[in-house]
Amino acid sequence: MNTKTKANISKLLVIMGTILFVGGAMSYLRGELSAEQISGIGAMALIFVGAGVGMRKAKQ
């Protein structure tokens, strides 16, 4: 896998994590999700963002 592909994957992971985080927060504020569901969504968001940032740092 070349560096351009890795960079695109890392960007995608960060974007997906951000969308999960913001979407989960908005759903919680509207009352559509419970606190138990939010903790799982938040954990997944952190995993995606962490993996994306880790791939970027490993590239450098």
Automatic annotation (TrEMBL):
This is Uncharacterized protein.
